[in-house]
Structures are given as structure tokens and as C-alpha cells.
Amino acid sequence: MSASKPQLSEKDITDFVVRENLERYTGAAWQGSFTEYLAQVAKDPYRHTRTAYQLVYDMIMHYGHEGFEDSGEEVRRYRLFDDPFNGGKSAIYGLERTIERLVKFIRSGAREGGKERIFILHGPVGTAKTSILDLMARGLEGYTATDEGAVYSFAWRFGKDFHSEGAPGLGFGQAAAGGDYAGIKNPVAVLPSQMHEHPLFLIPRAVRRDLLTQLFERAGISARRAIPHKIIEGELDFNSKQIYDFLMRRYKGDWLKVMDHVLVQRMVFSESGGTGIAKIPPEGNVETASTPVTIDENFKYIANLISSVSLVRFHGKYVRGNRGLVHYSDIFKKPVGYLQHLLSAVEEHKMDFSEVSCDIDVMIIGTTNLAEYSAIRADPLSKALRSRIRKIDVPYLLNYQDEEKIYNRGLRMARRYHKIAPHTTEMAALWAVMSRVQKSDLPHSTDVPEETRQVLSKLTPLSKTLLYAGEYPPNLSGKERQQLTREVRKRLRNEYPDEGMDGIPTRILQNLFADLCEDDDSDCITPFSVFKLLDQVVEQGPVNYDFLARQRDDSYHDFRGFTTVLRMRYDEIISSEIENSIINVDNNEIEARIREYLKHVTAYNRKEKLRNEVTGRDQEPDDKLMRRLESLMDVEDSERDFFRFKMVSRLTNALTGGTGHIKAGDSGVARIDFYEVYSDVFKVIHRSLYKEKRDRINWNNIKRDLEKHSSREALDKTVEKEGKSDHAPTITLLDNLEKSYGYVYECARPIVLYFIERRLANR
Fold this sequence. Notes:
By secondary structure, the protein is an alpha/beta fold. It is built from 32 helices and 19 strands.
């Protein structure tokens, strides 16, 4: 009897919610007087003087990063774009170079390295441009809720005794006098800054620079961090300026009494809440406006208290996005004239709200597709705007492994209801990247060595696709692979800046998988299903799919030929998997063969003799034994000495350089993991053993078993009834396919039948 799960009471649930909510609220809901806030500024002046650019940059750094090698160069991956908020559901794959360039530009803006720019993510449809910005927004929401990412604004407050006649003293000391004029105890009216203004703007500009300079020097950061000009020069918005001036007149220039009316508040960014993040759609919105405040609006208390002051209500996305991020979706779908206000936003840091102008502090970033960007470049009115743009290309992915991750993520739910064969998404991803890569011109470069040029000239769309994923093309020999040095791979990857800006969109492949999942008659979705649909896409031509208009360049952009190439590759894969699964081979036996080979090769390399354990005599290394394995590895006579040297070097490097995993041997002494070091040799010997035994395999019996039984349950019942002997090869094959390669019966069945009928029939 299984143990019962502990039950959660209503109190347990409510206590959990209350506790979690309280922990989140306590820090994020801080508010205090202006003097309390200044004490915080003195402790950490940098954090309290950050601009929107600095905040965004610090936010990205907050989530961390890691480096890795990709195509011969070190690339940095920022963990923010792994989507730590939703378990990776919206993670960005394969765009590390793009994001690294964006972060570089943001860092420049954070350091005020020249004029601010409008960042534009530019690329074909479906390249995660919006997803990048959405994760930046989620990052700001999370970061500003932490102590490290705290952001502050302020509100004006007034007490019930503000208009008391003859009250002794207004401002500081008023509580002691019995009057609550500034609403310190019980405010009757609180007006938050609509523009989420920086509290430091309440310090007069004449003294603000000197004060902040002193604070930076005392904190020891003046040498490495400059005080942002936006903070030094920034001014209060129209409403705050009106209230500030009114109170300064009321208190006859006593700034401290004016500050009694200020309540500094922590602000946590929220796109849905309209704080610090704003997304502007391409149509149907009003970005900025202002309207007079009437007596029946929320401002009525302030309007009554200070009737001589005219206040306005600000409207639009820049009210929401100030101090943070403003995201223009499909920015160039708007008329060019409509976007001219962006110039003042980045050049002067100001925005007009009808007849009222306000200082703003935002990072403006937009997305655009290829056609819209080309159109705006042709518009003469856009010249000034384009001079303020930083364009970041966002291409389709060029690493098929990353492309496959996108398909698998989309199929996560579908896998609960549909069986998908191994290599199905892999073949689709290979086809996709093959459609995007361009033929290299490096074979014609005079500064590339001749041997390297010859190897590069052999790169087909498939081999280039594999190389971009860190895999050596199988059509290259070991010696040829050595020509593809780190520097060569780096140069190849960076040869065409626009590589990946054309080719089949990821969305088309996602739609193909959606179509396949709608077919309830299919027991398993296989690569054959994908090949069929891809052929149908190609048949529809460039009228329906723009990428098909590209001119063929040898085997590049030969979209009809891609499926043929991948069918051949898939045939090789399933042949290897089935052959490896049909016979039970002891890897210890293969390891023993490799060890024996290495013993003789080591003696050969050292020009030494080996002692015969039977006769006790010294004898020459067994050349036939060595050549037997080398013939399996297709080693040419001219390369034998080099191959033998490399075989021993692999073991030496694994033992001394840590390139192989060490595992405990039977005697307790650590020994090398031979399978990891010599995996290619294991596979070749395994195939050789299969060839020795394949003629004894009754494929017709296996075929009959699979055709007769539509499910594994039905096959198992037959085996239980008739005994294992007649069905042993079938059971061995199916068990090994599932254990080693992940095939369920419904997927293994059509693939093995294909192998038997098509592959073996041709032998």
C-alpha cells in the first residue's frame, strides 16, 4: 500500500500565500521622507543616480552570464535570455552574437559614450525580436523588486491643516505645534509623480552637481563612474514644478519645509501596471498628450488645496515607460513624420505632451522586419532619424541544434498525445539551416593556405551546417579536419554578416509540425513525414514562400536537393542504429581489441619488441593485427604512421590532459574511459561485428513480427504464448532501440520495416 500524501489545510495554503506576499511586499513597498532617502543616496550614490540605460545594463548583468566556444570564438551567453522567470519556456536560443551586440550598445549608453541611440532589432519574421524585448521587460520587473535594483520616485502630500489660519509654523516642526500641514501623520491628499520622476530632481540644479560630486568622492567611485548628465541637468515635470514653486512661495524659500511635503516611494516596474515599461503597437495608439485637470478627477484634493496652481494630466506610453523601457513594436509601420519626436527624445531627453514639455529618461528600442526597414531607408525624410538608429540584425538560427530546441519546445505538450520518432526534429532543423547558409568564398582567398582552401571547397550545405554546430563533416578525413582550425572556423562563421537573414522561417517548420500533430491516424511522426511536407513547401514555389526565390549556387539553395541529401543521411543513421541494436555486443570485448592494438602500436612507434607471453621470446609488433583495425578505419597506407601516432596520443592526452573521464577499474585503480576516448573506433568495430553476423539474422521473421503486431503489448502476448526463441532477434532489436536510442514501438516499427524493405532489398 502506497504511503498517503500529506494533506494541506486551508490554513497551510493561506499562510504560505501571506508569507510569500509579505516577503515580496516589505522591501518593495518602502516609503519615507526625503531626508531618509538622502541618507540612502549617501550610502550608495551610484545606485541612486542610475539612468534608464544603466538600470537596464545592470539588470542584464544581475542575471549573470557565461562564456562558451562557438565556431572558433568565445561567445557570451546572458542568462536573462534563458528565461529564468518561467522555467525556460521563452528562452532565446542561438542568438548569442546578436544579444552580445545589443548589450554592447546598451553598455555604451550606460557609460554615456556619445549621443543616445534608438536601438532597432532588425530581421526577418519570426526571429525572436519581440521575445528578446519581452525578456528584458520581465528582467526589469524582477530586478527592480530586489534591493540591488531598487528605483525610487516621489509623491506630493498635504495634511488637513494645510490651510489653517494663524497656525504656528508650517513645514518642519509642525507636528510639535499640533498641526499636520504636510500630511506627515495623516495625509488627506497624495499626488504621485505621474512621470515617475527622480527624487534628486527636487534638489536645485545649482547645488545638485556639487552635492553629488561630494557623495561620489566620499564613496570612492568618482574615478571610475561619472555622474550622469541626465541626473545633473534633469528638471521636474510641469505638475511638480508648479507645486514646488507654489510651496517655495508659501514657505518663503524654505526648501526644507517644501521637502516636508515629499514622500519618497519605491517603485517596482510592471508592464501591466504601467510603471517603467511601455509597449507601443504599430497602430491605434496615442503616445503623448496632456489635458487640464477638472474638479471631478483624482486631482481634486490638490486642486482644492492649491487652487492657484494649474495642473495637467499626462497621457500616453511615455508616462508609463519613463525611467525604464519603451518598446516600439514594428516601429517602421508608422509614418516617418510620426516618429520625428523620437529625435528630441534621444538628443534632448525631452518629450512634448501637447503644449507641455517634460524631461524623460528612457531607453527606446524597437523591432522591424526587412521590408519596413528597406522602405524607410528610401524615404528622404528619415535621414535625421536614421542617424540616431543603432540597427542590430536578428537572423534566423545557423546552429541546427538550437533550431531543434525551438521545435522541441513547441512540441512539449504534443508529446503527451503524439509519438515522435528520434531524429524527426533534427532532420527538420538541418533542412532549415541548410536553406540559410551561403557558399563560402574562402576557397578563392589568397591569404588562406592551399590545403585549407581545398578542404573548404568541399563544404556542402550539410557539411557547413554540421560545422556550425561544432561537428566535423563525415565526408572529411582526419587530416582534412585538422585544416579546419579554430581561426578558420571563426573566419568562416563571420564571412557573411547577412548570413541567416534569408532562408526558411522557423514558423513554417513549426506550422508543419502542428499539421502533423493534427493527423490522428498516424501512430508516430517520423522524419519521412517531415520530408514529405518539406517537398510540398518547395513545390509551392517563391509565389508562396519568398526564400525559394534565391538562385541556386552549386548545391547551395538547391531546396529540392536538400531532402534527398537528408534522406541519405537519415538512411545512414537508422542503418547504424538498427545494426547496433540487432546484435548484443559486449563493449568489453571491443575495448580488449583496442587495448591489444595500442600495445602493438606503442611498441611500433618506439621501435621496440614485444614479449610473447606464451613463448617468452621477444618479437616484432604484429603488423597484420594493426592493419586489420586500420583497414576498418579506412586508413590509407601513406597515413598509417600518422594514424598510429595519433591513436597513442589520444590516450596520452586523455590521461594527462583530462580530456577523457577517469573511472575506477576492477582493481580499484583509476583507468581511462576507453569508450569516450575511442568512440569512433568502437562504432567501426561494432559495425564490423554486425557484418560478420548479419547473414545469420532472419530479417523475414523480424518483418513478420512487426507487420503482424501493431503494438508492443500484442507482440509480448505472442512471445508469452509461443516462447522467446522464435522472436528473440525481434525482442533484442526493439529493446536495444528503446534503451539506446529512445524508440517506442510505434516509431521503431515503421522505421525497421523501411530498413528491411528498402535497404536490405538493394543488397
